[in-house]
Design brief:
By secondary structure, the chain is α+β, with helices and mostly antiparallel strands. The protein has a domain of about 110 residues: Aminopeptidase (3-Layer(aba) Sandwich), CATH 3.40.630. The chain has 4 helices and 8 strands.
C-alpha cells in the first residue's frame, strides 16, 4: 500500500471536467511528456529525456511512496490524461505534461483536492520537497493554495501547509 493503512481511491472527482485516476501500471502515453524540454526543466532541472525504462522506474518509485494518479480532463466526452501527481504527506510532485494545459488553473485545482484529501486523512501538515527557483508557475500555484516557503535548498525551496487552520 502506498500510504500505510490507507486505501487509495480509484478516482478523485474534482469537477465534471477534471478527475484524478489511480495509477494502474499503464503509462506509455506519458513518455512524450518526459521528452519535452520545457517539462524536463520544470521537473528535473535539466534536459535529460526519459527512456521507457526510466519512466517505468519513476512511476514505480512514486507509486511505492504515495498515491500516484493521472490527471485527466474531459474533452469531447472522453477523459484524456494530461499529467500526473503523487500525493503523500512529505511531497506532492505534479506535472502537467501537455503544455497547452499549463497556466489554466488545473494544477491548482488538483493541489486543492489533494489538500482536502490530506485533511480527510487527518494530516496536520503537508510538505513539498522542492520547487526549483526558476519554476515560478509552480511556486505561485502552491502559494495560492496556501503553502508557504520554509527552507531553501541548493536550487529551490521547500514548502509546507498547516492543515489544522
Amino acid at each position: 500500500m502506498p500510504i500505510a493503512g490507507v486505501v487509495q481511491p480509484d478516482f478523485i472527482e474534482i469537477s465534471e471536467e477534471l478527475r484524478l485516476r489511480k495509477y494502474d501500471g499503464n503509462h506509455a502515453f506519458a513518455l512524450g511528456w518526459y521528452q519535452d524540454e520545457e517539462t524536463l526543466m520544470l521537473v528535473d532541472g535539466k534536459n535529460d529525456p526519459y527512456t521507457p525504462e526510466r519512466l517505468t522506474n519513476m512511476y514505480e518509485y512514486l507509486n511505492e511512496h504515495g498515491e500516484l494518479y493521472f490527471i485527466k480532463i474531459r474533452k469531447d466526452g472522453v477523459f484524456l490524461p494530461i499529467g500526473d501527481v503523487t500525493f503523500w504527506q512529505e511531497d506532492m510532485p505534479i506535472v502537467i505534461g501537455l503544455p497547452e494545459y499549463r497556466g489554466r488553473g488545473i494544477g491548482r485545482k488538483v493541489v486543492e483536492a489533494l489538500i482536502t484529501r490530506g485533511r480527510q486523512l487527518g494530516y496536520r501538515e503537508l510538505f513539498i520537497n522542492e520547487i526549483y527557483e526558476w519554476n515560478i508557475g509552480s511556486q505561485k500555484m502552491f502559494e495560492h493554495a496556501g503553502f508557504q516557503k520554509f527552507s531553501k535548498k541548493d536550487e529551490g525551496y521547500c514548502y509546507r501547509i498547516d492543515l489544522s487552520k
